[in-house]
């Protein structure tokens, strides 16, 4: 999603689009999006700046680092940014969204904070089954 600065009228411009995660390069080996990310933008312009209000909605899946269960995380983010008009012809909204999404990713994906993980001896998920091993 790109917006030409000259296309932003005095009254502002509102756009919405579903953008595939692959097009924004927001996936990483442990994070995958099953559906496109919904992006809504309102752009306002004055003589020197463009103000963008951006809302992002979607969800990503990943594997818990402790128990290896598949986990879905909702993505709901709203942010504003102001860019100078001088020297800016086209604004790449997908790039701005990508930066915001990637900064919010967890360092480690966990299904929940108190995840007990997998028993190293029998391989059972300690969250769903009782383990009688010495380490369990």
If you had to describe this structure to a student in words, what would you say it looks like?
The mean pLDDT is 90. The radius of gyration is 21 Å and the shape is rod-shaped. It has helices at 21-24, 93-104; strands at residues 2-4, 13-19, 31-32, 37-45, 49-63, 70-84, 90-92. A hairpin with a 3-residue loop joins β4 and β5. The chain has one domain. It is mainly β and 136 residues long. The strands form two sheets. Strands 2, 3, 4, 5 and 6 form a five-stranded antiparallel sheet that branches. The chain has a two-stranded antiparallel sheet with strand order 1-7. The termini are far apart.
Show the helix and strand layout.
Blueprint (H helix, E strand, L loop, with lengths): L1 E3 L8 E7 L1 H4 L6 E2 L4 E9 L3 E15 L6 E15 L5 E3 H12 L32
Antiparallel strand pairs: 1-7, 2-4, 3-5, 4-5, 5-6
Distance between the termini: 50 Å
Query: In DSSP terms, counting alpha (H) and pi (I) runs of 4 or more, how many helices?
Result: 2
**Mean of all residue-level pLDDT scores:** 90
DSSP strand content: 35-45%
Radius of gyration: 21 Å
- SSE order: EEHEEEEEH
What global shape is seen?
rod-shaped
Structural class: mainly beta
